[in-house]
Design brief:
Radius of gyration: 19 Å
CATH topology: Dihydrodipicolinate Reductase, domain 2
Number of helices: 6
Oligomer: single chain
Strand order of the largest sheet: 3-2-1-7-8
Largest sheet: 5 strands, antiparallel
Number of strands: 8
Order of helices and strands: HHHEEEEEEHHHEE
Number of domains: 1
Strand content: 15-25%
Length: 204
């Protein structure tokens, strides 16, 4: 949008990242966004975006729903008297249980609690950035001293998926997406939203 990309463009990388990465989701085949009144210039007060990802053997198809503006999924009954975090997070619903985490993947827990307790804390497999200084990881990667913790080939795919929610919002209806060719296939005019004409002097 001319005046911002809303919560999905800002916080989406910190909230849908874990689902995208863990399930290796790739590109969605369809995206639909519904919202509160939308003026076409600035991001609406609240949205829900529905993504459909194809099956990737041996994994089945996945449906991912984004909520913002105070909208939230139904509280899992396994939470009992606890409430979903007001600060955001993610809820992954599987066939054997559920995984709930807060923003940035903080405080992950399995539901029901008996499942969480039976598995215990998993062993650490991924390297950590010293002092959690991700800005310095970026600087050191630019200098060739280390690998970026989030390489462009992954970050670009994650960003494309998030921003497709805004493309669907602007299109005003469900879009079908060909990720390999980066094209909306059922609504040709929506392809105009995938790129923009840069102002003179600001081209990339």
């Amino acid at each position: 949008m001319d005046w911002g990309v809303g919560a999905i463009g800002d916080m989406g990388a910190h909230l849908i990242d874990h689902s995208m990465w863990a399930l290796n989701l790739g590109m969605p085949t369809s995206v639909e966004t519904i919202s509160t009144p939308f003026n076409g210039a600035s991001y609406p007060q609240a949205t829900m975006t529905f993504y459909e990802f194809p099956a990737l053997r041996p994994l089945p198809p996945v449906k991912l729903t984004w909520y913002d503006g105070g909208l939230k999924p139904h509280k899992p009954e396994e939470l009992g008297d606890d409430e979903l975090s007001q600060e955001g997070g993610a809820l992954l619903i599987g066939s054997k249980g559920k995984l709930l985490h807060e923003t940035y993947g903080m405080h992950p827990r399995l539901l029901p609690k008996s499942l969480h307790d039976s598995l215990g804390k998993p062993p650490q497999k991924l390297p950590r950035i010293p002092g959690e200084a991700h800005e310095m990881n970026w600087v050191d990667a630019c200098k060739g001293k280390t690998e970026a913790s989030c390489p462009f080939e992954y970050a670009a795919r994650l960003t494309e998926v998030m921003l497709l929610g805004i493309v669907a919002l602007k299109a005003g209806r469900k879009i079908s997406y060909d990720g390999e060719n980066m094209r909306v296939t059922n609504l040709p005019q929506a392809n105009d939203y995938l790129r923009r004409e840069y102002r003179q002097g600001w081209s990339v």
